[in-house]
């Protein structure tokens, strides 16, 4: 860079800043003073964002007052308010509660008034004179009809209509639009389809603009805004294809300098524009911006485990901004393209103006700023050159739409390194001026060495690099596939080509040899009925062969270290064969790639996490011994044909057990591919046996055998009951479905809620045990016709069908609708109605579109029944308490979600909802290993309450023992009282171990994996009650340890015994210390969990009839493992960011 250009740029910057400071209006001075105070205390911005975000959500003025008051109670009245505003706030907070119907609208109007310069009133009587006034000042307004991405095609049509009205108006000459506001069903895996739809809609608007230009004899410019990184390629390609049809019409697009890739896209767009001009057409225009979605990009990257797609240093963004400008000025490229220089940075403006003037290129450039920000600067600049102000507009009724824009503006302009943060008190030569000057100069120096290679480089086409050592020392979640990236979409298309033309295969039940089969299962394509596979189902003889095979396997003799190495290789194989798993699962089950891909990531997580978890437990508990139990049976479902089978196979395998794997008949081909991958990794075929067979055969012929030590089931509650009926003593760990509710209160962000509900209810055709199958709306929301219409629009817009048609967001059902589903679809109470009627595409019972039933009441069939189809039932509740009561009344307890911005409601919900996985402002589906360990309570689980994807899960597959006391001991008043009983030392030390682990493990809420914008908390919740049936062989030590563990855990405990021996007499003598009761005839259903160390079959039958798995192991000396029996596990996942902004958490976010 020539020194004279730099010096001239700095000189012009000083001139502009001095003019701004000398000419600034009193109104803008007041605004600057307010902004300075806003920036002094970080809490000020947080408070302002909360006020903006929460004041407008409800039509109930009392609720709004409550939310506003809570915000001021939390942060106080910020000092950026003027004395008059503080007086108004004092009056509002002290007297407004008496008449909220008057005070709240007044308060809200005042907020709108405060933001009117940044978000203009869309009313033409206000907007038209403002635009005309700006035009007289040599300023054009770029009108942005403010709004976030649309959820349905009806909403998209409405937005397009609004764009049409703007284009047809006689005073608007320049508008900005976004691809996500004109098409709701972008599915990036089907890039061509998404592009085609966007091009069609863009073309319509371009044609209208051309027509209106001729009719009105005035310019009608359409600018295509850029949003997140995910939209970059699609926006650019759609723009080029659409505008190519209209060589004589000029339109524009935006590039964001904080994305390194933008330079490549600039080069491409320039070549496109140059060819267009050389062919006689008009140049395109590109608006250069720095980028305003950094917080959202950081949040997505953190939550997805993807690389941040932007520069991580602000100075690099500044360098790229200049690099993009230099490229256009070099070799007179500006003759073939128009550029908008969008910036509020005085140094950037002066530098660009200096360079452009020197190149005699002013005719190819405009300068651009934001309406309402730095007005005097815009006036001074408009005297130098044509100026465009980006002007969001919004009517009073839709002011909610402005919140996201205002939050992003606040984030951008208050960021640590942003020029605007310092502008409001900037004077030439002062400290901040010199700092900004230095940043400018450093950005010039950084141009030459700037690295513009894309930061996000995931490429599923490349071979997986094998790790040389086991990765079990550190656990990191596997990232899903980013289909925004071209190479990953290429993989999807290669898989589509292979698996849509796949020849049928023949598969047999298999261990280290084929097992005897006596029946063939045909697997057929749900779309065209084409044969996929013939599977030999194992006979009784085959099951017997499998048992013998497992019995004689030497796998359990391997060391855990040897097993770790095998499973580490298995993880690499699953990574390498992600494509094959995508293809076979989509073909067999009808699930979309978007749904299958996270399953594969989860499967890899399971393979790496369970060995890791055991290693961690071994290191933390050096005096504890861990041994395999023996032979296990895993029975897996079809709805997660990869993730769940792998998890329930690898958990027992990691513990050294042999596994007989019974896949679902609806996903047996996928199950076979999974086994092949484990076998390839080195798991012996007699240690993992593939056993497709009839479900009844498993209960009757396999689970009755004493060789089988435990069973892992994911399936219906009926299956669990049948297993326990056949073998009451089987140790069963089962996840048995759910009937899950999302509750939406009047304090919710309703658009965000609908987005989450749509995903929760209809992804994978509702065939998830965690799916939202009924929606409970607080009265105000239930009566909100806009909410209902938006929900129906979003659901009805979802493309449904063949999973290999990538535009489809919903695939097929895995099986035809059951009688239960048919009843739900055919029966309608007098007070119920279909907001969206059931529909099967082409009369194919496997292709069911989403449907929504309104008006269901508590206790109705569709309220109480798990349907496993895309059927959403909508119910009314008086308030949150009533809604939780409705949700809890189904008897299930798997997942639940609350949509609300009121933290007080969060706390009430967390305390009272009876589910294993809680979600707040999130979908009810999509649990990630260790981030949100998964598993339910009540009818949703059978077993000891241990979730998948957490350190405790593997413990149920191990025989755990101690020959000596735990190393971690702690005394308290209770252990001191125990010492006075003269009990043996081991028992007393065990009590101290229980106390230690209670205080350090079981009483604490933990976050194992920290991601931006979310809390993911794991905690224990004590069981409600325990029945301990004392066996005649139980020693006093056994009895004491059970009672001590219950006491430490705070669990209400009853003791039942047959004969009163000396040990019982001793316990009775000190029953008050333990807080227990004695019962003779106990009703098992009155107790959440039962403990019994004996062999009486009748006791096991009685418990199994109620799906209760008896705790039969003698108590352990180590509280880390013994106390597990006295708790259920709870996961809570809270999304607290707003449009990427972290709110109060930003004040202490690590």
From TrEMBL:
Gene: putA
Residue intervals of the Proline dehydrogenase domain: 130-421
A GO cellular component entry from the record: cytoplasmic side of plasma membrane
Assigned EC number: 1.2.1.88
Known pathway: Amino-acid degradation; L-proline degradation into L-glutamate; L-glutamate from L-proline: step 2/2
Protein name as it appears in the record: L-glutamate gamma-semialdehyde dehydrogenase
Family: Belongs to the aldehyde dehydrogenase family.
Species name: Campylobacter sputorum subsp. sputorum
Assigned keywords, A-Z: NAD, Oxidoreductase
């Amino acid at each position: 860079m020539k020194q004279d250009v730099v010096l001239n740029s700095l000189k012009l910057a000083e001139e502009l800043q001095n003019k701004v400071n000398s000419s600034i209006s009193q109104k803008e001075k007041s605004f600057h003073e307010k902004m300075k105070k806003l920036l002094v205390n970080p809490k000020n911005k947080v408070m302002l964002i909360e006020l903006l975000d929460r004041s407008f959500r409800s039509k109930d003025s009392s609720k709004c007052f409550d939310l506003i008051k809570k915000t001021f109670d939390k942060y106080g009245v910020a000092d950026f308010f003027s004395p008059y505003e503080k007086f108004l706030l004092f009056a509002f907070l002290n007297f407004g509660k008496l008449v909220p119907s008057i005070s709240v609208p007044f308060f809200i109007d005042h907020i709108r008034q405060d933001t009117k310069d940044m978000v203009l009133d869309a009313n033409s009587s206000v907007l038209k004179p403002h635009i005309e006034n700006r035009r007289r000042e040599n300023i054009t307004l770029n009108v942005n009809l403010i709004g976030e991405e649309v959820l349905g095609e009806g909403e998209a049509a409405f937005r397009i209509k609004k764009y049409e009205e703007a284009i047809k108006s006689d005073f608007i000459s320049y508008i900005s639009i976004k691809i996500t506001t004109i098409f709701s069903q972008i599915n990036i895996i089907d890039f061509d389809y998404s592009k085609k739809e966007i091009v069609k809609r863009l073309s319509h608007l371009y044609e209208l603009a051309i027509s209106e230009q001729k009719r009105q004899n005035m310019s009608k410019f359409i600018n295509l805004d850029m949003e997140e990184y995910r939209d970059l390629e699609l926006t650019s390609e759609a723009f080029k294809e659409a505008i190519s049809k209209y060589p004589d019409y000029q339109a524009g697009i935006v590039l964001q300098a904080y994305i390194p890739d933008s330079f490549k896209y600039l080069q491409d767009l320039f070549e496109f524009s140059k060819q267009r001009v050389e062919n006689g057409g008009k140049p395109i225009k590109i608006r250069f911006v720095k980028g305003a979605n950094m917080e959202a990009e950081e949040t997505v990257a953190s939550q997805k485990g993807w690389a941040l797609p932007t520069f991580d240093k602000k100075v690099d963004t500044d360098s790229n901004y200049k690099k993009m400008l230099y490229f256009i000025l070099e070799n007179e490229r500006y003759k073939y393209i128009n550029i908008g220089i969008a910036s509020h940075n005085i140094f950037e403006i002066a530098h660009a103006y200096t360079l452009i003037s020197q190149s005699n290129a002013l005719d190819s450039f405009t300068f651009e700023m934001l309406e309402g920000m730095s007005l005097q600067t815009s006036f001074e600049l408009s005297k130098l050159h044509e100026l465009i102000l980006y002007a969001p507009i919004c009517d009073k009724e839709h002011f909610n739409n402005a919140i996201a824009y205002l939050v992003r503006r606040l984030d951008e302009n208050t960021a640590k390194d942003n020029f605007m943060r310092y502008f409001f008190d900037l004077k030439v030569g002062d400290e901040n001026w010199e700092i900004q000057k230095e940043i400018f100069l450093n950005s010039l120096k950084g141009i030459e060495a700037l690295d513009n290679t894309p930061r996000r480089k995931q490429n599923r086409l490349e071979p997986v690099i094998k790790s040389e050592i086991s990765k079990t020392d550190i656990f990191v979640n596997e990232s899903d596939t980013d289909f925004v990236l071209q190479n990953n979409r290429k993989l999807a298309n290669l898989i589509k080509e292979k698996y849509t033309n796949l020849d049928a295969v023949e598969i047999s039940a298999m261990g280290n040899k084929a097992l005897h089969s006596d029946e063939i299962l045909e697997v057929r394509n749900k779309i065209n009925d084409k044969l996929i596979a013939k599977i030999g189902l194992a006979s009784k003889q085959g099951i017997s062969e499998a048992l013998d095979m497992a019995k004689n396997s030497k796998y359990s003799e391997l060391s855990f270290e040897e097993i770790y190495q095998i499973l580490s290789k298995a993880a690499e194989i699953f990574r390498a064969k992600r494509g094959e798993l995508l293809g076979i699962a989509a073909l067999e089950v009808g699930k979309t790639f978007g749904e299958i891909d996270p399953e594969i990531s989860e499967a890899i997580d399971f393979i790496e996490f369970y060995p890791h978890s055991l290693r961690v437990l071994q290191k933390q508990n050096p005096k504890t011994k861990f041994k395999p139990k023996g032979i296990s049976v895993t029975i897996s479902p079809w709805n997660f044909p990869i993730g769940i089978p792998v998890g329930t196979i690898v958990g027992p395998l990691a513990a050294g057990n042999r596994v007989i794997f019974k896949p679902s008949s609806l996903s047996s081909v996928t199950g076979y591919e999974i086994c092949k991958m484990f076998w390839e990794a080195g798991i012996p075929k007699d240690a993992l046996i593939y056993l497709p067979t009839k479900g009844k055969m498993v209960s009757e012929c396999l689970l009755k055998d004493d060789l089988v030590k435990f069973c892992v089931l994911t399936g219906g509650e009926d299956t669990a009951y049948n297993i326990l009926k056949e073998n009451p003593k089987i140790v069963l760990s089962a996840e048995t479905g759910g009937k899950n509710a999302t509750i939406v209160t009047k304090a919710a962000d309703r658009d965000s809620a609908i987005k989450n509900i749509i995903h929760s209810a209809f992804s994978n055709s509702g065939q998830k045990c965690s799916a939202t199958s009924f929606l409970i709306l607080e009265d105000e929301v239930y009566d909100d016709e806009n909410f209902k219409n938006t929900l129906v629009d979003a659901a009805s817009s979802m493309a449904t069908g063949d999973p290999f048609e990538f535009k489809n967001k919903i695939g097929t059902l895995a099986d035809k609708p059951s009688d239960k589903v048919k009843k739900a679809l055919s029966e309608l109470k007098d007070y119920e109605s279909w907001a969206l009627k059931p529909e099967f595409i082409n009369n194919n019972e496997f292709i069911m579109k989403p449907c929504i039933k309104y008006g269901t009441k508590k206790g109705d069939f569709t309220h109480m029944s798990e349907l496993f189809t895309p059927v959403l039932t909508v119910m009314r509740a008086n308030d949150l308490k009533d809604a939780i009561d409705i949700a809890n009344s189904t008897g299930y307890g798997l997942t639940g979600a609350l949509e609300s911005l009121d933290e007080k409601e969060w706390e009430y919900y967390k305390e009272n909802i009876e589910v294993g996985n809680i979600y707040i402002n999130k979908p009810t589906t999509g649990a990630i290993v260790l981030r949100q360990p998964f598993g339910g309570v009540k009818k949703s689980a059978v077993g000891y309450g241990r979730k998948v994807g957490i350190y405790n899960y593997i413990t149920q597959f191990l025989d755990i023992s101690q020959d000596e006391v735990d190393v971690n001991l702690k005394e308290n008043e209770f252990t001191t009282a125990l010492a006075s009983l003269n009990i043996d030392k081991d028992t007393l030390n065990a009590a101290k171990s229980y106390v230690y682990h209670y205080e350090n493990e079981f009483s604490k809420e933990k976050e194992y994996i920290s991601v931006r914008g979310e809390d993911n908390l794991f905690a224990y919740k004590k069981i409600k009650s325990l029945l301990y049936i004392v066996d005649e062989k139980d020693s006093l030590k056994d009895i004491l340890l059970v009672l001590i563990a219950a006491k430490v855990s705070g669990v209400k405990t009853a003791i039942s015994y047959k004969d009163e021996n000396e040990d019982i007499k001793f316990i009775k003598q000190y029953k008050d210390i333990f807080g227990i009761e004695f019962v003779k005839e106990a009703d098992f259903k009155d107790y959440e969990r039962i403990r019994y160390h004996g062999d009486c079959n009748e006791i096991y039958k009685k418990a199994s009839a109620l799906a209760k798995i008896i705790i039969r192991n003698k108590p352990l000396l180590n509280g880390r493992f013994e106390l597990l029996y006295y708790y259920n596990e709870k996961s809570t996942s809270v999304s607290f960011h707003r449009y990427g902004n972290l709110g109060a958490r930003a004040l202490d976010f690590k």
